[in-house]
Amino acid sequence: MERSPVPEVRIVIDEFAFRRPAALAQTWDDQLLRIEAVAMWRHVALKVLPFAAGAHHHMSGTLALLWQKDGTAVAYKGATGAAS
Which residues on neighbouring strands pair with residue 11, listed in sequence order? Predict the structure, then answer.
């Protein structure tokens, strides 16, 4: 069952994620096909952040921004890797 209205989703994936293949070729192919399929959904905007963009402040984690009906936003920053 699909929610109504369908939430809009914007995704930014670092180019590095596309340069490191999975251990098994079939897994790599399946992942790329799934990303392609999801990117074609009308409510999804997928962008690739190129290496040429250089260093950025989200290289050590993730950031999720959620906009609510009243126009306010909520942010969640998740850290990845070793603690510094």
Answer: 46
d(CA 23, CA 36): 20
pLDDT digits (tens, 9 = 90+) for 17-47: 888 888 898 998 999 999 999 999 999 999 9
Indicate the burial class of 17 (C-beta count within 10 angstroms; 0-12, 13-18, 19 or more).
exposed
Q: How far apart are CA 51 and CA 60, in angstroms?
A: 15
All residues at 6 or more sequence positions from 38 whose CB lies less than 8 Å from its CB, including other chains:
44, 46
Helix (H, G, I), strand (E, B) or coil at 35: helix
Helix (H) or strand (E) holding 44, with range, is: strand 44-49
